[in-house]
Amino acid sequence: MKEKKQAVKVVQVTMERRIPLSEKTCPQCEQHFMGMKIQRYCSKRCANLAAYWRNPDTYRKNSLESVRRRKQKNEGGKR
């Protein structure tokens, strides 16, 4: 019998390290992907979306404050 080769991710640091990958499903977009043991999401985009939807009010508040600060800064420079 032939043994099935396991998928690995090669990480180059000061030495070569092989990290085994397993098939997973992204909880945000339901896409199947090959990921490391600790990886939950298929991409940084899905991780950011999940963080947003865990606490959307805080993200909206911070965004509004950022816009207000930018407007105040621009108005102060025009005088």
Describe this structure in words.
By secondary structure, the protein is an alpha+beta fold. It has helices spanning 44-54, 56-78; strands at 8-12, 16-20, 22-25, 32-35. It is built from two helices and four strands. β3 (22-25) and β4 form a beta hairpin. It is elongated and about 70 Å long. The model has no long low-confidence stretch (mean pLDDT 87).
Sum this structure up briefly.
The chain is of the alpha+beta class and 79 residues long. The chain is built from two helices and four strands.
Topology at a glance:
Elements: E1 8-12, E2 16-20, E3 22-25, E4 32-35, H1 44-54, H2 56-78
Antiparallel strand pairs: 1-2, 3-4
Number of strands: 4
Rg estimate, integer Å: 21 Å
Whole-number mean pLDDT = 87
**Which outline best applies?**
elongated
How far from one another are the termini? Answer: 80 Å
Order of neighbouring strands in the sheet with most strands? 1-2
Number of helices: 2
List keywords for this structure.
79 residues; alpha+beta; two-stranded antiparallel ribbon; two-stranded antiparallel sheet; 4 strands; 43% helix; elongated
